[in-house]
Amino acid sequence: MSRLESIDVVRLRWFVAVAQELHFARAAKSLHISRQKLSHTVIDLENELGTKLFVPGAQPTRLTDDGRELLEQAREIIGRTESAARRPEAPAALRVGFVPGVTVSKWTRIWAERFPDTPLEVIALVQAEQETALREAHVDMCFVRLPIDREGMSAIPLYREVPVVVVQKEHPLSVFDEVRMNDLADEHVQDTSDLDAVGGALELVAAAGGAAIVPHSLARLHHRRDLVYRTMLDVPDTEIALAWPADRTTDPVEDFIGVVRGRSERSSRAAARPDQNEPRKKPPAEKRSGRAGPAAKKPARRRGR
Q: What is the pTM of this model?
C-alpha cells in the first residue's frame, strides 16, 4: 500500500466509485464508462498493489480489509488533489536585471510595500549579457547601460553617470577636484572599454600606476583605499536606462515602470512610452555624482597649460 501516492488519481476515483456503490454496473454508469473497462482497471490496480481490494465472488460486492484501507487513503489523496486544483496559483515573479553599478534597493523596497502579492526577483547581470537576457526572456526588464540595440525594445532613460579618472592615492592628480584629458597626456591610461573587467583594470592602476577612466558608479563599486577618483570634464557621460521588450509590456512591467518613475500609489497607471517619445530632461544634480569632489578638500588651483 506504500505505492499509493504514485497511482493515477483517475484510477483511484474509479476505485472509490465502486467502493461506495458496491456495485460495478452502477459505478460504471455514474462514471460514464463501460463496466468491462472499470473491472479491468480494478483488476490492474489489485495486481499493482499485490492485494485483493474486493472479496472474490462475494454477492453483494464487499471490500476486503486492504480495500477499506485503500478507500480511506484514496479519499485523502483525491481531496488533496482537488484542494490544490482550487487553490489559486501564486503570481509569477517579475524578473528585473541590473548591470554593475546600478543600485536597485530603493525600487525593490517600494515594490515590496506596494505589490506584496507579486514577487520581485532581482538578477545581477554582467553588462555584456544585458541585451541577451532581455531578448531571450531570462529577465522581464533590465537596468541597462546604454547604448543597446533598440530594435523591438522600449527604454526609459533614468540618469547619466559622470566619468571619473582613477589614480593612486599619492598621484599628483589626486589634489584636483576635476581633471581633463590634457592632464593625462603623460599617463598610461588603462583600457576600460570592457566595463565588466573594470576591477582588473583598477588593480593594475593600484599595482603599476597610470590611470583608468570609468563611470562613477563603477569607481565606487570597486573602491580601494589606495586609489582615488576625480571627475573627468571632457569625457562623455554614460547613461542608465530601464529597458524591456516592447511586445512584453505586461501589467507588472507597467507597475514597475510606475515605481521607477516615482508615480504615487494612487496615481493611475499610464502606458509606458519608449524613450524616443519622451522629452529629455536634465538629470537632477544629485544624480550627477562626483562633480563636487571630496567635501572636506578645498579645490586646488588647476595647473596651467
A: 0.61
Closest CA to 23 of 47, 39, 46: 39
Query: Concatenated DSSP letters for 17-73?
Result: HHHHHT-HHHHHHHHTS-HHHHHHHHHHHHHHHTS-SB-TT-SS--B-HHHHHHHHH
Alpha-helical regions (H) of 222-298: 251-261
Contact 199, 252 (CB under 8 A): no
The single residue listed with the C-alpha cell 517619445 is 277
- DSSP H helical ranges for 136-250: 198-208, 216-221
Per-residue pLDDT of the chain (305 residues; tens, 9 = 90+): 456 667 888 989 999 999 999 999 999 999 999 999 999 999 999 988 889 999 998 889 999 999 999 999 989 888 888 877 776 666 789 999 999 999 999 999 999 999 998 999 999 999 999 999 999 999 999 999 999 999 999 999 999 999 999 999 999 999 999 999 999 999 999 999 999 999 999 999 999 999 999 999 999 999 999 999 999 999 999 999 999 999 999 999 999 999 999 887 665 454 444 444 444 444 444 344 443 343 334 444 444 43
Q: Which residues pair with 142 in a beta bridge?
A: 97, 243
Nearest to 253 by CA among 110, 154, 183, 168: 154
- Helix ranges (H only) for 115-230 are 130-135, 198-208, 216-221
Distance set, CA 131 to CA 125, 152, 222 (Å): 10, 11, 24
Q: Which DSSP letter does residue 173 get?
A: G
